[in-house]
# Entry
Amino acid sequence: MAQRRANEVTRTVELYKFGSRDAALTRLTSLTIDLLLESAIIGDAHLIRPRGQNAGPSHGEKRMRKNLVVLRACQLVAAVVMLCVPSKASAQARNVLFTQRDITIEFNLDFDNGQFIGGHGVEAGTASGAIEGATLTNFKFRGVSLDNRVGIADLDGDRIIFKKTGTGTQLAPLADPSSDPDFQVFGATGANFVLSGTYEVVQATGKFAKKFQIGEQFPFVSIATNPNWPPATTPTFPQIVPGSEYVEVYRHR
# Structure
């Protein structure tokens, strides 16, 4: 029986090594409960051993000791899985201060003497995490550099404003061979940018004024997308089709 339990522990470790963390935890939990119940039953049998029986350890006692050793091994493996070797995703989640999900309300292209120089517009959405609330973003970019202002207001009426600066890289179109030219998701008339930079606190009220310092900075990474047209309605120049942006703001990187 003890050998079978040891084999179970080995298989559990293999599950974790190959990325099945949830399955490993489920198996460990089940094995630990089984061992606890079995050890309790054997322990009760030891308490009612007939008087005069050999004082040395009985077969049941030996078996219980073996099971307890395996139980300790299970507990050790569980601790390693849950505490000592956190997954990359969970470590990253702990590092995120808040996330922001915005929809572009208006997007205009800017020109100087007929030359394209950038664009500006507004976004609205929500933030979740250490800061939760409704978001408004005024965005402006020149070339690949952006100079935005992000405001977040929560249910208590407390507000915070960040200066969002950084740069971006435009992703190349990604052709979908299963769709017609006028039904592309990441086509040539749309836009996809990976952005990175800094959120700097410039103003705050209420709880945010207590929690954050003016001038405090936090790194961010985001992906901004604008739909292809068609299938979107062809925009009126100098506007382009509004899109969306997903942002992760970090405590540190």
User: Anything to note?
Assistant: The chain has a mean pLDDT of 81. Helices lie at 2-17, 21-47, 59-84, 88-95, 206-211.
